Amino acid sequence: MKEPCQYPSPGVIAIARRVKPGLEEAFEEATKGVILAASTFPGYMGSDVLYPLTKKGEWQLILRFDTAKHLQEWEESVICQGWIARAEALTVDGAKVMRVNSLEAWFALPEIPNALPPPKWKTAIVSAVGLYPVISTLPNFLRPITSGLPIWIASLVNISIMMPLMTWVIMPQVTRLFKGWLYPSQSKKK
Question: How many CB atoms sit inside 10 A of residue 182's CB?
Fold first, then answer.
């Protein structure tokens, strides 16, 4: 049977750091340098800087590449390693690094770190397996609370409960249940 056509998933990395007091301006310049350097690499799609609300808050840099492979090439480059060393001299507590691509966070398992995400057709099937019982039962369960509300507010209440439930309760369990199918090569190594 022929494998369905797959489009590569984008590679997105979010890096959070706390800047040493008095070095904010130097860190901002370093952040601009990272963005400029990353923009010269294949597949670079853009970036965002989220500034801290307070001086002791975290700076966050988000870099987007068209594929996880292009992101990996950037991360493994000598240029990136140089910028990491420079950032570490300006910050405290090390960096918090998170790689998340849309709903792929539902399929991340701590026992399989840094694994490439499963094919989208598999994630669609497993998402449906987890989502179907929730969307079939939750609105009925909440109907005594939401029946007198306008439909858009009732939908907002349902979604506000459904999404955290899917993210932190349902999908971690469903992903573990289907781990061997979603990550066949990594499951064989264990």
Answer: 23
pTM of the model: 0.53
Which residues are bridge partners to 59 per DSSP?
A: 17
H-helix or E-strand spanning residue 48: strand 44-50
Q: What is the domain partition of the chain in residue ranges?
A: 11-100, 105-189
pLDDT tens digit sequence for 34-80 = 999 999 999 898 888 878 877 777 888 888 888 888 999 999 999 99
Q: Nearest 5°: phi and psi at 148?
A: -90, 0
CA distances from 16 to 50, 94, 143 (A): 9, 9, 41
- Find the angle CA(140)-CA(173)-CA(170) to the nearest 5 degrees: 25
What amino acid is encoded at 17 in this protein? R
Look at the domain 11-100 and name its fold: Alpha-Beta Plaits (3.30.70)
Enter the DSSP assignment of 20: P
* Tokens 């439909």 sit on residue: 151
